[in-house]
Amino acid sequence: MHTPASMVMGIVFAPLGLVLVFTAAITPQWREGQASLGMAVSGSLLRSGVKGQGTGVRSGSVESLLLLRSDGLWESCLQVEHSELKQCWPVAGPYQRDPRVRLAQGLILTSLFLCGTGIVLACIGVRCWTDIPLRGVAATGGLLVMIGGLLSLTALGVYTHNLARLGLADPSQGINNPRFPQLTLRAAGSLYFGWLGSCLQVLGGGALLLSFKRPRYPTCPSCPHLPVCPAYPSCPEITNKPDTDVYEVSC
């Protein structure tokens, strides 16, 4: 018996979505921003880092320095543009304590757990090495995968909707930090990985859910009111065909 196309689609899309969501979760690229700093503000930083990169900018000059700030769910990074000077640290402060960030963290972790469990159940249910798949087990795995995808979509939606306000004590004010003046925030690459992975999880889970629907077997011409399987012994019109595959199944 060939593996149904819906099972094949689900068993391919679900792991791919899990990998993309996991990649988005561990990378500090959920949001990013740029801040221009004067040389007088960061002269020591330039002497220790940027000057060593050969940029030719002198400490104390009026030229500005562009810093790139990026935040993830568990890590934040700061990098000087056009240099290898970069530093990352675990999220802390108001951003870490923001309930929307904590909600996104919890939803993503729950999504990863449910999707991983669902993939294991789907692999057991599909049983490509046998003739008869366990449709109920595969469909249950698909349900878990779909729920995981919906949870990750919820986390991404909450984070994206409040992206510029996360970590602010007063949402009506912008970023007011003398170290990072005029910091503008926007969505970063990890969010797009997460959106794509979550959609693949929902599609894969939905495809596996179709496993609940059992295929219809042909009816016996002699007894059209009785649904039978191709191996039903009382139907000679079917079992006497030389090209009919016979399986030991229960209908």
What does this entry look like structurally?
With about 250 residues, this protein is α+β, with helices and mostly antiparallel strands. It is about 45% helix and about 10% strand. The protein has seven helices and five strands. It has a five-stranded antiparallel sheet. Strand 3 (about 75-80) and strand 4 form a beta hairpin. It is elongated, with a radius of gyration of 28 Å. The two termini are about 15 Å apart.
Task: Write a brief structural summary.
This protein has helices at 5-26, 43-50, 94-97, 99-126, 135-161, 189-209, 236-239, and strands at 31-38, 64-71, 75-80, 86-90, 184-187.
Give a quick set of tags describing it.
alpha+beta; five-stranded antiparallel sheet
Note the overall shape.
Answer: elongated
* H-E string: HEHEEEHHHEHH
What multimeric state do the chains show? single chain
Biggest sheet details: 5 strands, antiparallel
Q: Helical content, roughly?
A: 40-55%
Q: Count the E strands.
A: 5
Class by helix and strand content?
A: alpha+beta
Rg over alpha carbons: 28 Å
Strands in their spatial order, largest beta sheet: 4-3-2-1-5
Strand content: 5-15%
How far the N terminus sits from the C terminus, by CA atoms, comes to: 15 Å
Number of helical elements: 7
Overall mean pLDDT: 75
